[in-house]
Amino acid sequence: MTAHITVGGTDLVQERRLVTGIPGPRSREILERKEAAVARSVGHTLPIVADVAGGGTLLDVDGNSFIDLGSGIAVTSVGNSNPRVVRAVRDQLDRFTHTAFTVVPYESYIAVAEKLNQITPGDFTKRTALFNSGSEAVENAVKIARHATGRQAIVAFEHSFHGRTNLAMALTAKSAPYKQGFGPFAPEIYRVSGSYPYRDGGLTGQEAARRAIEHIENELGSQSVAAIIIEPIQGEGGFIVPAEGFLSTLREWTECNGIVFIADEIQSGFARTGMWFAVDHEGVVPDLITMAKGIAGGLPLSAVTGRAELMDAAQVGGLGGTYGGNPLACAAALATIESYEEDGLLERARRIGDILTDRFTELQRADPRIGQVRGRGAMIAIELVDPDTLSPDPALTSKVVKYAHQNGVILLACGTYGNVIRFLPPLTIEDPLLHEGIGIVADGLARS
Ligand code: PMP
Question: How far apart are CA 408 and CA 105, in angstroms?
Answer without folding.
Answer: 45
